[in-house]
Every structure is written in structure tokens, then in C-alpha cells.
Amino acid sequence: MLVMVLIFYLIPLVMTVYLSFTSMKNWNVKYLFDLVGFYNYHRLFYMFQHDPSFKAIVLTTIVFILITLVVNVFGGLGLALGTFFLSDIVGSKFRLLWLLPRIAPIAVYSLVWYYFFHETSIGTLNSILMELGIIHQPIPWGQIIPWGAWSVIIFVNGLVGVSFGMIVFTSALNQIPKELVIAARVDGASAWTISKRILIPLLKWHLLYVLTWQFLSLLTTYCHLFLLVEWNLVNRDYGTTLALYVYNTAFLGGELDQGLAAAVILSVIGVSGGFLTLKLLGFEKMMKRPRGDV
After folding, report:
1. Phi-psi map region of 27: left, alpha, beta (phi>0 left; psi -120 to 50 alpha)
2. Coil, strand, or helix at residue 183?
3. Model pLDDT, residue 291
4. Are 119 and 127 within 8 A, CB to CB?
């Protein structure tokens, strides 16, 4: 495992940091030793100050991560708790439905929502609203900036993230002794009271894990966003996060130096945010050795 981490994480990270200080273009090795110092970072800072498109990308990244993170964590927790009180057969079938977005290939899943939010009358949402007489002409949902574009990308990615949290929390709930729930039921406790007083307090480890994992995952998510932007479903500026900007700039635009500088900033944000999350949620306190009786 250490060898895999070294090869696939640490070495690429070191290479990314080094190449961000060069003028690397199109993977051409002649730029490998052409050091330019902090020039690429100065360009990003200048773009942040003066380029409205880049400002929109930064703002989209913040809004996308914060709102989708809340949806993923608490949506997954809600689904896990809701299905916990159902029968095993019904609960399993309901959870299976929520796993479909994660099971489906990215292109197929994105294509479904492409036609659902399509800006013409062939779009499922537009056709339903027009049939009901709520609207009289199609609405370009993903081109309404900023909240229209944000709503689409948050919705599409939120459904996938919710299923991940649901799996983790469901597994944790199944390990809680049934006697605790049965005793609470005998005492007349409702499902909400059982969840608030018994189940959720026992899920602090799993809340910490899902929150940290989802934060880091959303910070580097770009696959669904790439397709939605390329298919012109959502506005390019308000549908592009910093991770997608890195991919488009480095691999499609050929400006590897600029893309790698943005990738380094993204890595710093990820590491800092991960440590901050662990600190605020009391990871060190949970890791302390429990006090035993003498």
C-alpha cells in the first residue's frame, strides 16, 4: 500500500509542484528545465483580480462544494435513518434505487439529466411544465446564471454523493445493537427520538469520515461537470469548477504550466481543508485511548 501511495500520489504530487514552476506546454520535454519561478501563480492571481470568467469559476467552486457537501452528508444520513425503520426487504429495495446513479456509467447518467433539463421542448422538465400550463415556452435551466447553472450541477452530483453517504451510514446503523432500539420502542420513543438520542450520537466516526471524504471528493470532481458543460447544458463559466478548469487548461488547452499551478492551489486547499475538518470535528479526541478501570 505504501508503494502504491508513493507511485500514484506522492510522486505525481511532487512532479505537479515542480512543473508548476516551469513554462511546460503540451507535455513538451524541452520546457522541463525552463524555470519561471512564481510566474504561473502570479497569472492566476491576476486573473482572479481582473478576469470575470475566472472569478465566476472560483465562486462556482465555493458554492458547489458547500451546498453539495451538505446535500451529500445529510441527505445520505436521512436516507440511512429513514430506511433503517423500514422492513429489511422494503429498505433494501429503496436503497438499491438510490444506488442506480452510482452504478450507471458517467456518460449515461449525465445524458439522462441532459435530456431532463434540456432547454427546448424535448426536455422532460420543460415538456411537463408546458403540459401543465405552468410555462408557455421552454426555459434554458442551465443557462440561467448563476443559480440556474449551479442548481443543475449541484442536483446532478448530489444524487451520486447521497448514495455514498447512505451506504456508509447504513452499514454503521446495522452494527448498532438492536436491543437499544427495541428498549427505546418499549418505552414509547418515536423514530425521531431514537434517531436523535441513540443512533446519530453513535455515528460520529462515520459523520467525520463521510464529511471529510466528500469534501475532498467534491474538490476534485469534474467528470459530470465536463459533460454538462461540453454539451452546452449549463453555462460554461458558472458550470466550471476549479478542478474542471485544471483539466481543461492542462489537458485540452495545452497550457500545462497554468493548469498545474491551479492544481497545486487545489491540493493546498484540499490538505488544509481536510486537516481543518478533522480538527473541528475532534478527530484527535476520538483517537485518544479510552480510560480503563484501575
Report:
1. left
2. helix
3. 65
4. no
Q: Give me the torsion for CA of 78, 80, 81, 83, rounded to 10°.
A: 110
CA distances from 252 to 23, 52, 66, 67, 258 (A): 16, 21, 27, 28, 12
* Structural domain spans, the chain: 61-240
Supply the pLDDT for residue 293: 54
Query: Crossing angle for the helix pair 147-173 and 52-84, nearest 10 degrees?
Result: 30
Alpha helix ranges (H) inside the chain: 2-5, 11-19, 39-50, 52-84, 88-103, 106-116, 124-131, 147-173, 178-186, 191-194, 204-219, 223-230, 242-247, 256-280, 283-287
252-284 confidence digits (pLDDT tens): 888 889 999 999 999 999 989 888 888 887 777
Whole-number Å distance between alpha carbons of 13 and 265: 12
Distance between CA atoms of residues 243 and 266, nearest Å: 7
Contact assessment for residue 169 and residue 77, using Cβ atoms and an 8 Å cutoff: yes
- Please give the CATH superfamily to which domain 61-240 belongs: MetI-like (1.10.3720.10)
Which residue carries 512543473 as its cell? 19
Q: What pLDDT sits at residue 162? A: 93
Per-residue pLDDT reduced to its tens digit, 69-96: 999 999 999 999 999 988 888 888 888 8
Task: Give 10-residue mean pLDDT values along the chain (294 residues).
Answer: 91 92 88 91 93 94 96 94 88 87 90 94 93 93 94 94 91 89 89 90 89 92 93 94 94 89 93 86 74 57
| Residue found under cell 507511485 | 7
Phi, psi (degrees; rounded to nearest 5) at 4: -65, -40
DSSP 8-state assignment for residue 33: T
